[in-house]
Amino acid sequence: MKKRISENIKLFLYPALFYALNLVSNWWTRLEVYGEENLKDIAGGKPALFAVWHGKLWIPVFYFRGQNYLALASPSRDGEYISRVLQKYGYKLVRGSSSRGGGSALLSLVRLIRKGESVFITPDGPTGPIHKVKPGIVYLQEKTGAPIIPVGVAIKRKKIFGSWDRLNFPLPGTRAALVIGQQLYLPVDSSRKERALILEEAMSRVEEKAAELL
Q1: Which contacts (CB < 8 Å, 24+ apart) does range 131-135 have?
Q2: Is-contact 86 104, C-beta < 8 A?
Q3: Three-state SS at 108
Q4: What confidence tens digit (pLDDT) does each residue in 59-104 have?
Q5: CA 97 to CA 178: how far, in whole Å?
Q6: Which helix (H) or strand (E) holds 144?
Q7: Is 69 left (phi over 0), alpha (psi -120 to 50) or beta?
Q8: What is the mean pLDDT of the chain?
């Protein structure tokens, strides 16, 4: 009974604290955004697959809020915390992971993307390895034809946590750059492994561009 009460308190408290901290830290960050012209078709209702490294989510989650984008969240307890935060920002959740319910979650995403929904994906999530594209996003483009939009982030002054994804947290008053890359269509005549490597290179380019802009 006590354990259940403790878990319920955590389910209420942790997402509320995370949400408040994300709001405040993004308000104090001086963000410069580049490549918004690459969203022109998306604003007109064309679906897209937004790709952001797991450890760089802190700023993009806030920047892309209120767009009713889909997001894939792990069915784990930590995934539940994140889901509640994302819902506060207006994201629509599909629950699943590479190890638990991943197949059904991907099928749900394919169906929704075909209906015109855009989705926010961390290609190296939820457990890594860091900056290595897993096959999920490649499969989604293969089945839907939606373009991938790589998103890069660089933060001038930051705290890097010791988690597997090396989460980047902006320190007060810092500058940051967010780069929205060009729409990417992976070559269908290549293997999924080869397409994953092409996406990794595209992700590296937008990350490098963001760092240069600072």
Answers
A1: 131/53, 131/200, 131/203, 131/204, 132/196, 132/200, 133/196, 133/197, 133/199, 133/200, 133/203, 134/98, 134/196, 135/192, 135/196
A2: no
A3: helix
A4: 999 999 999 999 988 777 777 888 899 999 999 999 876 544 457 8
A5: 27
A6: helix 135-144
A7: beta
A8: 90
Cα separation of 5 and 1, whole Å?
Answer: 6
Q: Which of 61, 44, 205, 22 is nearest to 131 (CA)?
A: 205
Q: Which residues contact 62 (CB under 8 A, 6 or more apart)?
A: 22, 23, 26, 89
User: How many Å apart are CA 70 and CA 191, to the nearest integer?
Assistant: 26
Count other C-beta atoms under 10 Å from residue 91's C-beta: 23
Spatial distance between the Cα atoms of 200 and 204, rounded to a whole number of angstroms: 6
pTM, to two decimals: 0.91
Pairing of the two strands 175-180 and 148-155: antiparallel
- CA separation for the pair 51, 122 (Å, rounded): 6
